[in-house]
Design goal:
Distance between the termini: 31 Å
Shape: globular
Structural class: mainly alpha
Helix content: 55-70%
Radius of gyration: 22 Å
Order of helices and strands: HHHHHHHHHHHH
Length: 320
Amino acid sequence: MGLTLINYLSVKSGNSIQFISTLLKTVALLLLIFGILFSGHGNARNFVDPAPGFHFNALALVTGFMAATTGAFASYDGWNNLNMVAGEMKDPRRNITRSLLLGLFVCIIVYFLITLSYMYMLPIGEMAQSSFVASDAIQRALGSGAAISVAVLIVICTFGAVSVNLLTNARVIFSMARGGNFFPWAGVVHPKFQTPGNAVIILGVWSSLLVLSGSFDILTDMFIFMSWLFYLLVVLAVMVMRKKMPDAPRPYKVKGYPWIPLIFAAFTLFYLISTVYYDVTNYNAGKSPVINSVFGLILTLTGVPFFPYFRRKYGKKVKG
């Protein structure tokens, strides 16, 4: 709730906190990477040795890989958040593209190195059985006293993730209200602080309720699955709009259109289908209390009846 208050009072303060938390997170990760890789306690054979008892099964390998990508997608998610604050940026046409590419490149390098360091320290079979890979790897490399660094890193990462989502996703609620798709008071700019204050409060309260409602792992799986479902819908919507509105201004160009969006859509569809299959399999085997992806879909669909209601009630009162 403290971050909600900060984003309510000042856009600059929210942005500054996000910059500092990102910097601290990156520095902490780099220290862990070099601490593990240069500890001298790892084994390069871990990069090539398979897990004990491994037997190749194409379907199990593919579904397992796609299930593992959920965690990776959770780490990378946020790449799209910059677009939500485009209206508050200087020269968004230029800076959004540069920021997205630079941020994604940095994430790829840092996440590749941290994964490499974990693999260097822990055999694949041991890693598969570990509930806290980072903690186990760091403890083996630097001793039990270093385990506290993982807790600090988790706090920093969580703090940064909460901060950026409050900063950016509140703009989605704000935009919905301004477009006649939500309560009009959610689209009001605070007269003194010049922030979408009401939208920030709504997001902060709703996020707190979700956190208190259940398992963090379940929430994460639902969030990633639904995020990628909407990424698919957005890409398809862009292609449909380009077909219906061929002469509309195009401030952002897509290199390799339409093949790049089609490849993205095909991969995303495959990921969604394989995730549902994996979740159903885990549920039937008693490994999961709910089918996370299906539950997330049902929860999201509960909002469908509200769309025509808001459009009918507030659609004609859209603010300019």
